[in-house]
């Protein structure tokens, strides 16, 4: 009976030792291996996700630029490519080149006296059309703003004004100046166009010329800031007169 008790007690103690998951001697190697694997998996997952997002950030502007350029080339090429297809000429890009040459010739023709007259007649007809005249006027205002021939209808300068509340500023474009006649004296006002929907719609504000801040930004830089939603905003903006004064002082300092 004693031998049977000893024989049965030994396997039970061994089985308890083998099946005890809380035994630190038995479970420490397994727990350390599992924690190491988890740490490696977490590090690998974090590294892969960061590199993937980096690739997306780099390729997104490239893909958008390529897509817009390809769409523009196909769109412009579609104006004259059907004409070449009827003539039996199938060369990709030939319609695009023809369209560029056509636009250049239109610019040369409109610059002449005869072309300006024909253009004025066509513009007069378009302005008599309902609904179409509003679209034409808005698009003409934008094209006149970036036109190399600055005329009276184009944006004059980029302006920063206090709008809509004190302590807040808004970008705008000076379109003209007006002299307000008052009993206590005349006051010079600037007509400032503040876009509210990119460049198509906006508010016309009459602001005292002394309250208008004229930054050292060109018209195209101002349009880029508004169209991009402020993402192309320079880190520092200085008034144009301050920059001019600094440029005048530099030679004097060097001479001294």
From TrEMBL:
<feature type="transmembrane region" description="Helical">
    <location>
        <begin position="52"/>
        <end position="73"/>
    </location>
</feature>
<feature type="transmembrane region" description="Helical">
    <location>
        <begin position="93"/>
        <end position="121"/>
    </location>
</feature>
<dbReference type="InterPro" id="IPR007462">
    <property type="entry name" value="COV1-like"/>
</dbReference>
<keyword id="KW-0472">Membrane</keyword>
<protein>
    <submittedName>
        <fullName>Protein LIKE COV 2-like</fullName>
    </submittedName>
</protein>
<keyword id="KW-1133">Transmembrane helix</keyword>
<keyword id="KW-0812">Transmembrane</keyword>
<dbReference type="Pfam" id="PF04367">
    <property type="entry name" value="DUF502"/>
</dbReference>
<feature type="region of interest" description="Disordered">
    <location>
        <begin position="1"/>
        <end position="36"/>
    </location>
</feature>
<dbReference type="GO" id="GO:0005794">
    <property type="term" value="C:Golgi apparatus"/>
</dbReference>
